[in-house]
Design a protein that fits this description.
The protein has 315 residues and is mainly β. It is 13% helix and 49% strand. It is elongated, with a radius of gyration of 27 Å. It starts with a helix and ends in a 5-residue tail after the last strand.
Length: 315
């Protein structure tokens, strides 16, 4: 044996141990990654009783709070039934409150089902993802679906439930939202906001930035504030439903409006120069409020569109 062979083998063993135990690159560090999700809070019983058809119901509340810096992005996916209210605040935190309503034939069924319904906050990406959990949620991973349904009898998996969210975010937040069957309300938020609603009522109050919204069936109310739109504009399109645009006096913006019935415009608007100012409005028009500014596009394929001053002239 060469004199240096034993020393060489000892050096290699020592190097391997250093690699295993080193906190940044070792195997132990790779085996224990940080948790990618914030677990849901414990459910608290809020109310219980009977429906009109005699079925028992219970309402539970789950709450979660975490630090959330200004300017970050948040994606929210709702279950098949549920509404969402988001409000902007001056605090750098995310507050989520989910009210869960479950219906069944016995208290034991309701309690068992409520334990499997909730939400989690996925932090694996720069954009946080508030994900709903429950038997009716379709976009769960295999692991998440197993955790939700394992041990529950098939009849329990088919019991009806809904989740209604109240969320508070910093006033400067980007949002991506998907609502299926429920209402959406956004207030006092500035950012890049994209949302889709399949069926429900949409209310935008004091919202600004770059806002793109799509509603398949329902109604929309947009309440502007200030003297002009802050940001690049609003693009709101509705398949079937009515739109109401409430405009404060002295507001400035460019507008593009369209509906399936003659427009009902009760706010001063400067239309194109070739259109007489006293001519009736048709199904679509372009113009300006005041001196103009960011463009607001509001269109409904089958419905009415009304523009009214705020506060109303005849409350």
């Amino acid at each position: 044996m060469r004199p240096g062979g034993k020393v060489c083998r000892l050096w290699l063993v020592g190097a391997g141990l250093v690699w295993l135990l080193w906190p940044e690159t070792g195997a132990l560090a790779q085996q224990v990654p940080p948790s990618p999700t914030v677990p849901p809070a414990t459910a608290t019983l809020k109310a219980e009783g009977k429906t009109d058809d005699g079925r028992l119901f219970q309402e539970y509340v789950r709450e979660q709070k975490m630090r959330f810096e200004y300017g970050r992005a948040l994606k929210i996916t709702l279950p098949p039934q549920g509404s969402l209210t988001i409000t902007g605040s001056k605090r750098a935190e995310l507050v989520v409150q989910a009210t869960i309503r479950v219906e069944g034939a016995s208290s034991a069924e309701l309690a068992a089902l409520a334990e499997r319904i909730g939400f989690q906050i996925d932090t694996r990406d720069v954009r946080l993802h508030l994900m709903s959990l429950g038997p009716a949620v379709k976009n769960l991973s295999r692991k998440e679906r197993r955790a939700v349904s394992e041990g529950l009898a098939s009849p329990l998996l088919r019991l009806p439930y809904r989740m209604d969210y109240k969320v508070v975010v910093p006033e400067y937040t980007d949002l991506e939202i998907a609502v299926f069957d429920g209402d959406l309300s956004l207030a006092d938020i500035y950012g890049g906001i994209v949302f889709t609603v399949q069926r429900g009522r949409v209310v935008l109050s004091g919202v600004a930035g770059t806002v793109v919204g799509r509603l398949a069936t329902g109604t929309v109310r947009v309440e502007l504030n200030g003297r002009s739109w802050r940001g690049s504009g609003l693009d709101m399109q509705v398949g079937v439903g009515d739109i109401v645009l409430s405009v404060p006096r002295g507001f400035a913006a460019d507008v593009a409006l369209a509906a399936s019935t003659p427009l009902d415009i009760r706010y001063p608007i400067n239309r194109d120069a070739d259109i007489p100012p006293d001519s009736p409005f048709g199904l679509r028009t372009r113009g300006r409020f005041g001196v103009g500014g960011a463009e607001l596009q509001l269109m409904t394929a089958r419905g009415t569109l009304r523009v009214e001053p705020y506060p109303p002239e005849n409350p």
